[in-house]
Amino acid sequence: MLRSHWTSRVGFILASAGGAVGLGNIWRFPYMTGENGGSIFILIYLLCVFFLGLPLIISEVIIGKSSQLNPVGAFKKLSGDKVMWQAPGYIGVLTAFIILPFYSVVSGWCLAFLYKSITGVFQSGMTFEQIGSIFKQLTASHFEQAIFLGLFVLMTILIVFAGVQKGLQRWSEILMPLLFLIIIILIVYGLTLSGAKEGIRFLFEPNPQKLTHKSIMDAMGQCFFSLSLGMGAMLTYGSYMERREKAISSCFWVVIMDTGIAILAGLAIFTIIFTYTNEPAQGPGLVFVVLPNIFSQMTGGSFFAVLFFTLLFFAAITSAISLLEVISAFFIDQYNLNRSHAAFIFGIIIFLIAIGCVYSGDYFDFLDKLSTNYLLPIGGLLISLFAGWKLDQVIVKDEFNGKWYSVLYYPWLISVRFICPLLIVVVFLHTHRII
Ligand code: TRP
Fold first, then answer.
1. Alpha-carbon distance values, 235 to 72, 161, 241, 281 (Å)
2. pLDDT tops 70 at residue 1
3. Of all protein residues, whose CA lies closest to atom 13 belonging to ligand 1?
4. With contact defined as beta carbons under 8 Å apart, do 55 and 251 qualify?
């Protein structure tokens, strides 16, 4: 079967940025920043993006593009069928089965909150407890969660089913500009509020005394999660790139957009938050409890609530499709399944695992930590070793050749051979107090 391709360079960039920009940027990044003391976390995060994220995204996209295959097929083909090198491929597909269910649960909450904000459930003047109890009721109701989660997974299935051009690319091209527009509106609004200064200070004023053991691991996990690295999602998107297309400058664009949007979202959220409270460390409930509360106290708040949850939903759906695409591509390439069967069968399996998450909160937290702090870094470690030591360097040199970034070939090589693996291992050992 002929492989589909993006119709343009911009198509690849927007689809990949769509996959990268998600709940990780707008829900996870702000609450992680809040929990880890603000600016110091952002600084470590940016270092991770530069030293780990960039070299790894380039590696994944080149591996995908040159093999024109899903993660398992790609490592098989490029390693000359070495069993050992199939590990990152299989770990990647497995990780998609872990991330997508809990991702869908949170996305279901977004849809539920979008629905509630449109239908006027958050009325002005409600108390903190009243609004908090709306989120509590939602997370306690298995039925309500199942409905919204089911709706979300169904939409994800339909887009993946529509294929690379008519599904992944087209929806990213529609939703990404809208997403950007909404963030800008929210920032402009946030900057006019009284908490603007405090919010900005929290995000950007150096505060090394707040550095903790856990922050570094959290920043690294966040880097993998936000850039969709370590499990072959970028690899799969790279595999839909035409061979004659150059990959590297597109990777830069994706990293810039993902990192930029995380920081812009942080700016929008913290300027709003500091206008009404002094407590940025609220955990995963930050955007589901604290924000709705603030919206209900603001003039025009219900409008901004609708806007905010629309933003969250757009970000979530373009990322969820990239996760389901990894699984589908694996079964399409390796087992000749057709796209419609793959999307529906595995979409339904994901839905069932997600229902499991709904029934057990601990299980939910476990899946989040297992994937972001363990599986993605391990996947990233193996991918960087593969790109540095095993991949035919003629392929890589050809990508770097002849453009402004040709000087970056050796820095890239040193990164994937030494810096990335070392960094991942050291952060790991340090977090577990081994060194
Ligand atoms: N990057 C997305 C976000 O920030 C989530 C995501 C999509 C992802 N595909 C992935 C995370 C692959 C890890 C691996 O929300």
1. 10, 19, 10, 34
2. no
3. 228
4. no
Cβ neighbours for 239, distance < 8 A, ≥ 6 positions apart: 3, 64, 65, 67, 68, 69, 70, 74, 329
Of the candidates 245, 246, 256, 219, the residue with the CA atom closest to the CA atom of residue 405: 246
Do residues 417 and 388 lie in contact, with contact meaning Cβ atoms separated by under 8 Å?
Answer: yes
Give Cα 200 distance to the centre of its chain: 24
Measured in Å, residue 228 CA sits from the centre of ligand 1 at 4
Q: Give 190-241 pLDDT, tens digit per residue.
A: 999 999 999 999 899 888 877 887 888 889 999 999 999 999 999 999 999 9
Name the one residue in this structure whose structure tokens are 């695992």. 353
CA of residue 122 to ligand 1 center, whole Å: 30
**Distance (Å, rounded) from C-alpha 28 to C-alpha 10?**
27
- pLDDT, position 369: 83
Cα 154 to the center of its chain, rounded Å: 20
Residue nearest to atom 6 of ligand 1 (CA): 228
pTM above 0.70? Answer: yes
pLDDT per residue as tens digits for the range 315-362: 999 999 999 999 999 999 999 999 999 999 999 999 999 999 888 876
Q: Which two tokens stand for residue 179?
A: 């997403």
Nearest of 287, 239, 217, 227 to residue 34 by alpha carbon = 287
For 287-310, the pLDDT digits (tens) are 888 888 888 888 788 888 999 999
CB 319 near ligand 1, within 6 Å: yes
Please give the radius of gyration of the chain, using alpha carbons only, rounded to the nearest integer. 21
